[in-house]
Amino acid sequence: MAKVFTTPLPAASRLWAQVGNADFIDGYAVESHLSPIDAVRIGLTLPVWASALLKLRNLILKPFGLKTEASDTGETAIFPMHHQDDRECIIGTDDTHLNFRICVFKQNEVIHMATWVHRNNWFGRLYLAVVMPFHVLIVRNAMRRIAAASSIASTPAAQ
Q: What is the pLDDT of the chain when averaged over all its residues?
């Protein structure tokens, strides 16, 4: 299976147009022949432990009026699609505490995944600090699943 590595999102990504000086952005990558949309589908199919964390997050944050809707589409979805083409998918939402986007970008048989966060206020700064360790675990797990799916799809028995 391909190794997950940290790397900046390629400069050709549309996401860079939103990134400001004080914004958070990370970047991970893995070799893969999957399309960006297939990588998004695999990456956002959360394992049980990550789904449980998301449910806990929603339970804790609902009284504060933050978005907690778990639907895949619509105005209230946590992960609505903002852009999709053959090389890139950008999903995410804007909320009172922060705005975020997850970008999956394909370049040279490498899938890049980056998360951009613009903190709108002190609560957004606090929120990001609290969720950061979980964010890293979830994204690295997603990238490993993308790598595994790519490995399975490229084996001779799968072709």
A: 87
